[in-house]
Amino acid sequence: MEEYNQSVDNRIYDTAFVKNLFNDMSKTYDRVNYITSFGFSKRWRKQFVNEVTLSEGDVVADILTGMGECWEFSLNQIGQTGKIIALDFSEGMIQHAKARKDKLRGENIQILCEDVFNSSISDSSVNAVICGFGIKTFSNQQLQKLSIEINRILKPGDIFL
Ligand SMILES: C[S@@+](CC[C@H](N)C(=O)[O-])C[C@H]1O[C@@H](n2cnc3c(N)ncnc32)[C@H](O)[C@@H]1O
Question: What are 50-62's pLDDT values in tens digits?
Answer without folding.
Answer: 999 899 999 999 9
